[in-house]
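Worked Example 4.2. Read the sequence first, then its structure tokens.
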Amino acid sequence: MACLECFLGCRMKSVCLCGCVALCVMLSGCKKDNERDYENTLLVDGLSAIGPVENATGDSVNEGASDLAGISATDTLTVDGAAALDEQALLAQSPPLDSEVIYVGRFIDSSVEGLAYQTASRRGVTSRDGEFTYVVGETIEFFIGDISIGVGVAGSVLTPNNLVTRGEEYNFNHQFNVIRLLQTLDVDGEPTNGIKIRNDINDFNQGFVLDFDLPVDLFAELDDLALLLGETSNVAALVSEPLAISHYVDSLTELGIEIPGVELTTINLVGNLDAEERAPETRVKQIFSSGEDINIPQIGTGDNGYKGQKFVLLDSNGQRYPVIIEGGSSAESIAVTLSRVQGVDVTSSNSITIDFGPLASSNSWQFSFNGQSFPAGASMQEIAISINDKTNTTLPGISASIGGSKLYINANSGVNFNFYVAGGEVGTDSMSFIGNYNGYGSGSGRGDFGSINASVVGQVVTVGGFFWIEYDEEYDLYVESLFSSAGGYQGDLLPNLIVPTTVVTNGFDREVDDTFNLVTHFDVFDSLGYLHVLSLYFTKTKGENRWSVYVFIDDLHVGGTNPALPPPQDELQNQAKFDVVFNSDGSFDTQNSQTVFVRDWVPEHSQGYYNDYFLPILIGVDNETFLIENPSSTNFLIDLSGLTQFGSSITIGAETRVNQARK
């Protein structure tokens, strides 16, 4: 059984220092700020033993750590000759000495007024601000009338998360049930302005028993709970779980209180991966449209400057697939045309940087983009906001951002960018259009640009986009340039010498069984105790003794975001893929394998909403030291060192979980 003080006081530690049996010895490193020295203080089921300690036979037990080994988990411990959990014995203990300071603490789920409380030296009812008094080191118990809602170690701020049922382990169910009941009993039904328990609550709950450790659905169905609500409130059911959680999280966040969760969960896999099996491998060629015609701003024309060109794809059987690109075609239409060839996949985009430069005085530019006009003198900020507002309507897939004097415009398809610009202060103002070449809107590519000067006569600027060709490894691609009527070659959409990049993948798709060798699943829990499923997919790669491991939680990617990608891809989670290696004797090669570790995972609730107080997802690899500094997130270390690679199926070993999860 996890001891209360160790769980509440030492939760920030990565391991429990006491072993967590029926009693523990607090080490000096566990004591909290402003509290007396707890070194070698014996705790019995979370209660500080003030007097000599005896076992059930009456034998005195020394508090020294060396004598504790003789006490079994089944021994009944007594304090001053009375049962350790005897309420009256606790209350009969001596009041604090004059030298002991009386502190004021607060109970929070909003401030809770009207909770009865008692410690070894004090008792009372929480004030309007949820205040109670205590002496450092005391255990405190809270009540709704006669109903105990839990016991904890007194401190400056306590929440339902700090409470456990007397003599029991920490339990997520307890936390949730207390939160919902407190908010339901609030006299005005509006917990955002504080929670107040009616003064006469004790008149209605005599003899009621509520087991807060029950699963939330069973707790909500208790007969005594129904009677309590019927007698004391105008509602017949508890506040809904999502609503109660949302309020609780908001209250704690405002106070800067972290919500504790599972600090480190290790899932150990023990077994064997079949070395003979291999998931199918895919090899494709890729080529980027980096020719001299690409993404050059064309001043004074509605044409993007892309000249006609003829591509020929040759398959492994010598079959030719000619594709003719008409002059002036957008990158989007080029992608559509090339994708008609079987075994070819083409995507496109567009990107431009516009430098407004220093303005002579006030902004007098008139500006329009792809048929959308902006008010005369509109600032870059106003233009960017207007473009983003239309990304799902009249400017589909187009977004904008600003930096300094520059406006960045990106499209997730290769549509032409058509600008119309007029105005500005003649002789002073100018505007530059800078091609980005790499397609990511950073302005860091080739940097072809065109400039226009202020003029009362409107000027047109057109910018073409990019395209990526991906085709089967067995294909060859080359260019047969067309002759113009005036003679000479046309078109330079691809490099003159086409040297594609060969990309090797295992074609992994979790929806397709023959693209991976094995999958295994584990139940995991977020810091609010909600159940999720972690899935590991194993794929044998072409390299000898090498495998890829893909990690998903709730069938969602957990590989972090890539800010180098164009919007909106830069905000999407990437695939979490890890490379692992086995030695020639079949044992696991820890040194050359990546450590599979999911850290600061942002869970999605089973009902579809996100717990927005969690941190972003990060994946730790290689020899990174995992310092768990913030217990508000849930972390998973997948230990593969117990795996071998011979010729049988994998088996799953024990799972190690730190906190008891909801059931």
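Now turn to a second chain, presented in exactly the same format:
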Amino acid sequence: MNPDNIVVFLDAIQRTIIATKSDKQEAGRLNVTKAVILNVSPTQDKKLQVQLYPLFFREFTVNRDEFPSWSYDLSAIVLTDVVLESNLIAQYKQMFQTAAQVNADSGKVIKLFDDES
């Protein structure tokens, strides 16, 4: 099972969605927040590039520290028990850090050069 109520499913048009299960669930529905689309595409050097795109960009909302909720009809999606790799989960979590979290997480400042004045 994925940590922090992270769920993976295919939506009605077969996009792979990664999201966080909402605390409030309804019968016959999957309520989520922080939903992203998992996109995998080949590169020219025959490797796979993995990208996560938000389902809706926070930059378009009034309050950028709140995340919209999404409600999916369980009969229109395909749930899976896939457990994601830790680096993909870390990338997912990093996408949804608020400005306050980013500032709080900034580490100790390292001085690269000594001032010799």
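Notes for the reader: Residues 86-95 form the longest helix (10 residues). Residues 11 and 27 are 18 Å apart (CA to CA).
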